[in-house]
Amino acid sequence: MRDESTLIHCEHVSERTFEEVVTAFEMAVGQITSAVLQQIVTASTDERDFETRIRAFEGPSGFMRFLDIDHGAWLARIGRTARCKLYILGNPLIARTMLEHDLAVGLHVPLRAMIFEDPQTGKARLAYDLPSSLMARLRNQKVSAAAKQLDAKLAALAKEATGVDA
């Protein structure tokens, strides 16, 4: 099976420096490793216990980082100068609002966001694909409604980090 859908890509172009955007973003999201997440899954006794343990890792935005990839660091090893960080972020408590209606959502959660410095302008950009556009191909109204709430949370995080709307 193959199908096509329309992706909506968002970029917040900031007047803040790359470092300022990275710092603001990282302060707004919590952080959790896959090992710690697995420990929580194993140790949780019920839904309420799981929620309590997960909430301890949320940042003020309600998101947590699962993985950071500094593309700029490895690009420097091959002679390229770039400032670019990719983040895998989300929250199992948010993801479940969609996954409970369609497991295919799991292809797109957790989310990806990237902060990079535009080589032409020197401006910091925070980029992501709008979650509701990623989920639209599932044609599930409950997933779409939850994804639109996720859109708003992600846009608010991006605005907080960059100081601007997309």
Summarize the structure in words.
By secondary structure, this protein is of the alpha+beta class. The chain has helices spanning about 20-30, 35-45, 45-55, 70-75, 90-100, 130-135, 140-160, and strands at about 10-15, 30, 65-70, 85-90, 110-115, 125-130. A 6-stranded mixed beta sheet has the order 1-6-5-4-3-2. It is globular. The two termini are about 35 Å apart. The mean pLDDT is about 95.
Short description, anyone?
It is built from seven helices and six strands. It has 166 residues and is an alpha+beta fold. The chain is globular, with a radius of gyration of 17 Å.
Number of helices: 7
Number of strands: 6
Sheet-strand content, in percent, reads 15-25%
In N-to-C order, the SSE pattern is EHEHHEHEHEEHH
What's the helical proportion of residues?
40-55%
Biggest sheet: strand arrangement: 1-6-5-4-3-2
Largest sheet: 6 strands, mixed
By secondary-structure content and strand pairing, the structural class works out as alpha+beta
Radius of gyration, taken over Cα atoms and rounded to an integer in Å: 17 Å
List unreliable stretches of 5+ residues: none
Q: Give average pLDDT, whole number.
A: 97
Q: What form results from the Cα inertia axes?
A: globular
> End-to-end distance, in Å?
33 Å
What keywords describe this structure?
about 170 residues; alpha+beta; 7 helices
